[in-house]
């Protein structure tokens, strides 16, 4: 195998709250068949100490990789088989940032109730599903209109 351009270092915490490291520089680690590291060691009090020990053993800078590889090698050293690799978790889907009711209706903040009603009528015609618009977008426009009308109605002084 050819030398890697960078040494890959995997660090994991042990049951005794120490850190175990493993480094590959002649070839990347692989699962089947399991490729043992070029160097390994343990007993460091912190992950930074483990990385420094790995760099001293290799004689050059190391790049960290997933802790799975150090855990797997530690198990092999104990006479156990490497654990099955977990499938990576899909990234969490974050909700889109909420748009303000003003921007949804394409209005400047502080518009009058009459301007809100006019903007809603115009956007309702553009976005209504019966007129070829998107139902989800229409619901957004309708919700924004209701929020603004409620807000503006509360501001107006009542006259009897």
Number of domains: 2
**Could you tell me the radius of gyration in angstroms?**
30 Å
Strand content: 5-15%
Please work out how many helical segments DSSP would assign: 5
Share of helix, binned: 25-40%
Strand order of the largest sheet: 3-2-1-4
Shape type: elongated
Number of strands: 4
Task: Characterize this entry briefly.
It is built from five helices and four strands. The chain has 160 residues and is α+β, with helices and mostly antiparallel strands. A hairpin with a 5-residue loop joins strand 1 and strand 2.
Written overview of the protein:
- The protein is elongated and about 75 Å long.
- The chain contains five helices and four strands; from the N terminus they run βββαβαααα.
- β1 and β2 form a beta hairpin.
- The chain has a four-stranded mixed β-sheet with strand order 3-2-1-4.
How is this fold's topology laid out?
Blueprint: E1 7-13, E2 19-24, E3 39-44, H1 47-58, E4 62-64, H2 68-77, H3 101-104, H4 113-127, H5 135-155
Parallel strand pairs: 1-4
Antiparallel strand pairs: 1-2, 2-3
Helix pairs in contact: 4-5
Fill in the keyword field for this structure.
four-stranded mixed β-sheet; 14% strand; 160 residues; Helix Hairpins; alpha+beta
């Amino acid at each position: 195998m050819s030398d890697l351009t960078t040494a890959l270092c995997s660090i994991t915490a042990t049951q005794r709250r120490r850190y175990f490291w493993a480094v590959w520089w002649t070839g990347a680690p692989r699962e089947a068949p399991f490729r043992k590291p070029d160097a390994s060691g343990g007993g460091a009090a912190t992950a930074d100490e483990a990385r420094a020990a790995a760099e001293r053993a290799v004689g050059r800078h190391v790049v960290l990789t997933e802790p799975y590889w150090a855990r797997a090698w530690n198990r092999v050293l104990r006479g156990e088989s490497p654990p099955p690799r977990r499938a990576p978790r899909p990234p969490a889907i974050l909700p889109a940032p909420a748009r303000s009711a003003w921007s949804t209706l394409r209005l400047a903040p502080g518009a009058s109730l009459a301007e809100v009603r006019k903007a809603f009528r115009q956007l309702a015609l553009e976005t209504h599903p019966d007129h070829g618009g998107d139902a989800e977008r229409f619901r957004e426009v309708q919700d924004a209109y209701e929020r603004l009308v409620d807000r503006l109605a509360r501001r107006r002084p009542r006259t009897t």
